[in-house]
Each structure stands twice: as structure tokens, then as C-alpha cells.
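Input.
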Amino acid sequence: MSFRSFFEKLDRQGKVVHIRKEVSPDYDAPAVLNELDGKVVCFDKIKGSDMPAAGGFCSSREVIADSLGVKKEDLLFSLAKAIENRVEPETIIEGECQQVIETNVDLTRLPLFTYVQGDGGKYIPSAIAVIKDPDLGRNVCFHRLMLLDKNHFVARIVENRGTDTALKKSGELDIAFCIGNTNAVLLAASTSLAPGQDEFGMANALDKTELVKCKTIDVEVPRDCEIVLEGHITKERHSEGPFLDITGTQDKVREQPVIEIKCITHRERPIFQTLLPGRWEHRLLMGMPKEPTIYNEVNKVCKCKNVLITPGGCSWLHAVVQIKKEKPDDGKKAIEAAFQGHHSLKHCVVVDEDINIYDLNDVEWAMSTRYQADKDSIVKPNQPGSSLDPSGDLSEGKKAMTCKAGADATIPLEKKDKKFFRGEYKKININDYM
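Output.
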């Protein structure tokens, strides 16, 4: 289901909050999104643009599941299956995203937001980037874009990942940015696949994803997205940031590549998709795709039942892993595997099947009753970590370093007696006693 079709479906169901009043894109529209965090919101009139802007399409697991046609409880398993069983997408001749072609580029006409005081400028945080590595093929990911002028952005391109690796081979690179995508495409672009594995193949396994070739560059994009920005990563660099990131703190200023946009294609009457940095949509979209990668890795060493990237861990740095423990060292094996499944993970707690990982009070109960720090911990100092963790070593020009820790809060197999289980009260119908 395309972004447009899903938007119209939610609108018919009365699940879209329409803001009819004209709203400034600088601080005001983001403030409205923040107040309505968790809901799908459409700004019918954004000052300075003739495009409506909409956000919140990934702001809850329920909405994401609805867009993929699965139950909320099955999201993890659907994502894990799509990672392992990608389906090559078909490239067709024509697509809705090319109904209008503009070679006289003016990016200032787009409804770009300035999100919070201190941001480096107007940003697009919702666009997926598509490039072709000369050796590994297509790569799909996210790069936030800070507006410089009518036809230039500066992009945050994370070092030693897909785009950066391809860029180092040639110094310059064609790139397309797609706005208004299906949740299948957004989730796939957020997932760290192995080099050479096509994220559009994962998206196509989740929900049919057909592609079209761009008009000015040799790159394919989803046929049914709303807007495509066709461009080129130049050798020029410019300061990028600060910008509010997933941790709720502002990321620092860096010298980053400048991108020249040479052509814009879009649907007739396009809807500009935005998302709210540092809040639910950003957290779920960035963190949730790490759950299946952890799940798949843990399943290689023991029986993994479920994974949650926790909201209290900024939906990025902390995970709870639920296993069926069959061997004494399964808990510690699961910790090591979790760190392999998500390289930015900082803390991991492993629990038994009877613990509800979505109830963090239940997880804390397991920690308090089944875990001994001197025996059940794994501590890994001086490890590559996340540049988003302000407490890590973020020395300029070096990979972020941190100390990682895991807690095995599972019941020791040799001590599996009554003292590790909660007493259960008799189940009754309270109406019989009232």
C-alpha cells in the first residue's frame, strides 16, 4: 500500500488530525507534532509552501502494523523474515513519482521545518537515500538533509557505512532522495543489512515495492513515493548541525558533504512526509528495525523468543532479549549475540519466557530477583559504540567508544525452584463478589 493510499485509508477512518490553520514551518509545526506525538497529523497549509505536510505514520507499533497488514505482535517476526527472505523488486517504465518533472530546482518551495532552537537550519529528516556502489550495488538508507540554498543540501553521512564507503571509491556519487514512502521502504532503509544486500528487496518482501529509474541519474526509486530529489554528492564540504537526534539531545556540528539537486520529480499535488526528530516516530523507525537483527543473531546461539529496543534507552542503546533457556550459558551467549546484532547497543538484559518484555517493571523484577552482578554480568570496556551517546568517548576524527554491559537475568538451570517464581492468586470473576 503506497504512502498516499495509506494516508487516504487513515483519513477515511478518521485517524488523521488535520490542522486547517496556516502554520509556520519554523518551530510552530514541529511543536504541534510534538503535542500530538503518537498520532498521524496533516498540516493542510504550511506558510511559504503550496504542499501539505504530514507526519506520524511510524509513531506507533499499531499504525506500522496496520500499514503492513500484520498484527502488532507479529511485527518482529515479519521483519526478521523479510531480512532473511528478500524479494528482488521489479523495475517498471512509469511511476506516480514522475507525474511532474522540474529541472528548475527550488528547494525552498518545499515545506522544510526548523525543529528546535539551536538547529543548524531547515531540515529534511524523513527522506530515504538511494545510491549505487560500483562494487556492491544499490544501497538504501537515511541521511538527514540541512538546506543550504535553492539547490544544495549538506547531508549527515555516517562514516564507514554504505554511502560513505561508496563515496570514498570515487570522490563523487549520484544520489536520489525519496520523500513520502511506504512504511515497508522506511523500515528497510532503517535496517542494517550486510554489504551488497538490497534494502528494496527487504521492502518488497514486506509489501510490494516496484521501482522506476530516475530521469537524470542511473538510480532506481520507489514508483509510488511522493517526491524524488535527483542529485549528486560533490567534493565540497560544509558544516552540518546541530540537530535534535534520537536521544533527545542535539548532535554536534561536523564538516559533511554538500549535495547538489539537479531535478525534482513528484506526484501531482504531492504530500510532503515529515517526521519528528527525537520523538516516537523517530525512535520506532530507527530502533525497531534493530529488533529483528538482534533476534536473528541470538537465534544462532540459543532459542530467542522476543526482542525489545526499549524507549527508556532512547530506542537505540538498550535492549531486552527474551529466550527459552536450555543450557547454563544461554543467557551470556544471548548477550554477546545481541551486541553482534546491533553494534550501537550499549546495555542488554536477557530474561526468561515468563517475563513480559513490554512491561519494564516486569523486566526490573527479573533483574531484582534473578540477577547477581558479580556472576551474571558481561562488561566490555573500550568498545566501538554510538556517536549518539553523549557519555561515550566522542573524540573528533575517531570512532565513538563506550563501555558495553549485559545482564543475564534468567533463572539458573540448576536452581529452577519455586523461589524464582511469583505466587499466583486464584482467578475469579469479580462480579460474583460485588
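The chain has a mean pLDDT of 92.
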